[in-house]
Write a structure and sequence with these properties.
Layout: H1 16-33, H2 52-62, H3 67-77, H4 79-84, H5 91-116, H6 119-136, H7 141-161, H8 168-183, H9 185-193, H10 197-200, H11 206-213, H12 216-307, E1 326-328, E2 341-343, H13 355-360, H14 370-373, H15 378-392, H16 419-425, H17 433-445, E3 457-464, E4 469-476, E5 480-489, H18 497-509, H19 512-520, H20 533-542, E6 548-552, E7 556-564, E8 567-575, E9 582-585, H21 589-607, H22 625-640, H23 646-656, H24 702-714, H25 732-738, H26 745-752, H27 767-776, H28 825-836, H29 839-852, H30 859-864, H31 886-899, H32 923-926, E10 931-937, E11 947-953, E12 956-961, E13 965-972, E14 975-976, E15 982-983, E16 993-1003, E17 1019-1024, E18 1027-1032, E19 1040-1044, E20 1050-1054, E21 1061-1066, E22 1072-1077, E23 1082-1086, H33 1100-1106, E24 1117-1119, E25 1126-1132, E26 1137-1142, E27 1146-1150, E28 1157-1162, E29 1171-1174, E30 1179-1184, E31 1189-1194, E32 1199-1204, E33 1209-1214, E34 1220-1225, E35 1229-1234, E36 1240-1245, E37 1251-1256, E38 1262-1266, E39 1271-1276, H34 1288-1295
Antiparallel strand pairs: 1-2, 3-4, 3-9, 4-5, 5-6, 7-8, 8-9, 10-39, 11-12, 12-13, 13-16, 14-15, 17-18, 18-19, 19-20, 21-22, 22-23, 23-24, 25-26, 26-27, 27-28, 29-30, 30-31, 31-32, 33-34, 34-35, 35-36, 37-38, 38-39
Helix pairs in contact: 2-3, 3-5, 5-6, 5-7, 6-8, 7-8, 7-11, 7-12, 12-15, 12-17, 22-23, 25-26
Length: 1296
Amino acid sequence: LPWSSNIFTDGEKLSDDWWSFYDKIWTLVWNLNGKGQSRLTPKGSSASVPSIGQRARGLVESLNIPAAEMAAVVVTGGIGTALSAKTNKITDKAMMLRGERFPRIIFHLVIMYLCKAGLENASKCVQQFITMLPNLISEEDQCKNSLHFIIWSLLRVRSHYGELDDGARFHVISHLILETVIYGKSMLATSILGKDDSAEANSNKESGFILNLVQKDRVLAAASDEVKYMKDAKADRLRQLQDLNSKLDERLIEDIEQLQSLEDDIQFAKTAAISGDDNRKAAFKLAFDEDQQIVADKWIHIFRALSDERGPWSASPFPNNLVTYWKHDKTEDKWRRRMKLKRNYKFDERICQPLSTKSTNENTAPSVDPFVSAKIPEKMKRFLLKGVRGITGDVGSESCEDNNDTSEPSQNKPSENQVSSDAANSADSSDYPTSSVQNRKEQSSTGGDNDYAEVLSSVHCVLVTPKRKLAGQFTITRNALHFSFEFLVEGTGGSSVFNKFQDNKESDAKSELGSVEKLKGNSDVGRGNEAGSGDALMKSQSSKIKHHRRWKITRIRAVYWTRYLLQYTATEIFFDDANAPIFLNFSSQNDAKNVGSLLVSLRNDALFPKGSTKDKNSVISFVDRKVALEMAESARESWRKREISNFEYLMILNTLSGRSYNDLTQYPIFPWILADYSSEKLDFNKSSTFRDLSKPVGALDAKRFKVFEDRYLNFCDPDIPSFYYGSHYSSMGIVLYYLLRLEPFTALHRNLQGGKFDHADRLFQSIESTYRNCLSNTSDVKELTPEFFYMPEFLENLNSYHFGVKQDGEPLGHVGLPPWAKGSPEEFIHINREALESEYVSSNLHHWIDLIFGYKQRGKPAVEAANIFYYLTYEGAVDLENMDDMLQKSAIEDQIANFGQTPIQIFRKKHPRRGPPIPIAHPLYFAPQSITVTSVVPSAISSSSSVLFIGLLDSNIVLMGEELILSVKLWLTTQLQSGGNFTFSGSLEPFFGIGSDVISPRKVATSLAENVEFGRQCLAAVQIHGDNYLILCGNWENSFQIISLSDGRIVQSIRQHKDVVSCVAVSSDGSVIATGSYDTTIMIWHAFRGRSNDKRSKNASNDLSTKDHVIIENPSHILCGHDDIITCLFVSKELDIVISGSKDGTCIFHTLREGTYVRSIRHPSGAGLSKLVASQHGRIVFYSDSDLSLHMYSINGKHIASSESNGRLNCMELSCCGEFMVCAGDHGQIVLRSMDSLGVVWRYDGSGKTITSLAVTPEECFLAGTKDGSLIVFSIENPLLRKGGIQRNKVKSSVG
């Protein structure tokens, strides 16, 4: 007990706080006994007075608190503790506390008040104590001992403190002793009786009398019990103190943990805030850097437009004798053909010189574009220098894009005479030129200027291109894909590359300056001298690579999950705007699949928001292996039914099996078709003309195959399975061998050979020798590449490379061609493609498909077909993913990358044979003589109006007369069924015809300009978002108008040209419109995209302004270069090209996406051009009224053929297949010409009328409009070809 401590020694005073505490305890005890003097019971009535415990229990019960537990708490800790304490389970201890501890507390308080308190407080305490005596005294033996001990103690206190307060305290204590004796006289009586005579001697004295009442043994027993109690109390207090300390320690630990948790939360929030701020800064820097790159690219584009051979600043205007160098363009058409070349602004002329000349001129600078290297005025030079350095941050000498740089790095500080060349170099075409510039521009125009803030996924990857492999960050937002270049990958770009990302991150963190420079793409090569010359070279190359690439989500056409180094860690993304596909390799299969699935989901959601109508044909799926197999099955059926060509089918299989133009280690594979490369003429009716497609190349020659067979049978190695062929039919080396003469493959070949060409005798020198080598050389079993069937330029040394001299002393130049090619690469490609589509190949191609893509690729069928290659060329031969030895893993990856990879196996069962041909489905090819006049509609528009335009939109025929009279009629056609049968909904005769009016003839409410030559070139029919329109130009107000073909109403008029709009052309899908004008410019327009039919998706205010607009009224490009009126146009979204013809006698080629100048073609005699057609196969034909001649050129500007038109032509149209051109004019005949040679295939006599317009239907019927307003239908007169017995070669011979 605190008051029993040694602090209450004699002479020591208690503080007021302690006395206040004790007073409150005493008041509580007193109130529990009777709550004041008014309730004191009479002396001697102890039996009827409730005990202290009973009174405590009553108080607790009145508070509705469990009594047994709370009473003990009340006694020991007070009411406050009782009210807040938890339930005490030790009820017996509570009873003990009530019976033993409570009286002791009262007794100790009384003693303390008598010894230490003032006289008034001591007297008050005595009076209150007296009232409690009946409850404290009982007949129990222990209580008797306590009574004796109390009396003895009071006597001791009186003797010690009785003299205080002038003896007044003595009387107070004596009164208490007396009252105590009186209340306990019944227990003291026995003591009196038990006293001996010696004790009675002092009975006359009060103290002696009272002392005699006290029994010594009871006092000692009580004192002993008190000492024991005090020891137990002290031990209990120590235990409680320990428990308290333990609880304090626990609480302290909890507080420390909570504090640590709080600090962790604060640190996490701080880190998150800092990280978010860093990410925001990094995103801002990336966006700023990308914008700078875009601005620089656009500035260079403007510079080139001004300074090229058709620009106003040109020092060498077209035509000129300057040499232009070319490289391969990655633009793909719908058949995945890459037919185009583009200017090479980074060509190194030193590789066109012999080695001896090179050694003496090593220090000469590489040549650049001749147009920008010409003399430029001094003021212009300073302007260019200021512009380039101002945009690119004073690094005008360095390229900021990915280019075909085969030269040495430029000096850091160029002289002024290098400014123009640096400007040209700094914006050379990248691997994906439009992705960063055009798409970013479109995003900014639609409000997507903060695209980085909406990042949905960001992952490290390697962008695989034919030229190099770029490691960086691939970021996906809701609107775009973005690739940010980080470092250049050396070697194969396998799994080890992804370990370098962390290393680069740590090294970048050491230097903030280095990180900023990496973001800006202007890293200083000189800073890394300590890293060695290799690192310096890598940095130098990295500085010339475009650091940012961007593609729009909505432009995605397909996403394929594919392989890289035989591991399914890659994704290839295809676009619908002729943008080259991109090939991305990730660190794991999960990353590749997750990215692909996310892209497909975002693309579909962007094009078809919730609530809009979805076109099932436009919604795409992520092409994983399951979907790829389903697509292969569908393509197989289409091929078997002759719905697609052999070439198209092989390209589909190559794509589905993981072959890619982007990855040279798994380039698309095509078969050797022909076996005769020595004849003057080929006969496709002889099987010996063709290669045996049922055997692999290695088994074509029996003598050589014996060597392979012996190797297979006798090979014995515990780790390597037996194989027939140690080399593969497709590898990076094979691709570079074939495409040696095309950049970038030329540069890649030189890099592979240590910076020089291989020996001339080992290079690709002739078709015949290469095929012979594939039959005789035991290390050569290569197949072909797709370029053998569509691109003649790879066979020519267009850039005049010096490949060296062969052993026979002849310099190596163009590829030697077979005699039947007549020395023409175009003829070779044409015949090779014709052979691919021949009936022999169509009937046997399934055997080759089984070998390469089908069931003969692996297993027992492959052994039986002798189609077994080295085991590392097969998927699953080694488990690279779980291989721990990095050196071994790297070595295997190198071998896989360099020595060939077998395609993904698509078919597990035997491939079916192709179905029989259906000649009636392609009459122009099989039997053009079967087409004749089947019906004539007189006065189709009006009796006096000649038909100037015929357009076809679905089943509608759009007609326009010379007096601006518009009419729309139905085109009645049949449906071709299996076997060549026709079905009709009406009469069986005729098979095709003109139906009723959809729009009756009516005059368009507009006026033409004076002296305008109104004709076919001024009109175009187009379908946009399911609605049909007619575009009309030649108006007096210098506009062109959009006319709805549902009601003939003008819905939009666009006026942007400065003079009369003279011609118009539309892309095949109707999304792009090109207009030419008398002001010598061409403008490119785009249709509104994504117009939803759902009314909920339309904004009311927007609806008012654009509800009748079908074309965006701001042109995307304004193309210049002509010197006279634009007379004819062609635009192709697939080929990414705009071709314009003018009265100045030239054709100009521009790219559609960027609007960059490509080349010019001049009419041989300089005559003005009147009409122009271009096919999807890359052939252009233009016609001039001045000399009545036709001239054919390739899409790459090479002249192919010329022919006389034999009269004035009023119309030129192409067949839907693009293989034939149909011409007609004043002579009244329709002439069918081949688009391979301009040769006349057939002539069709009409009704002797002048033909003013033509159209070729998808069924290969002709619709001819005449000067007198009649409409003539040329179609198959009867189903002559139903039996399919007529062969095309017979038609050719009859045409002779």
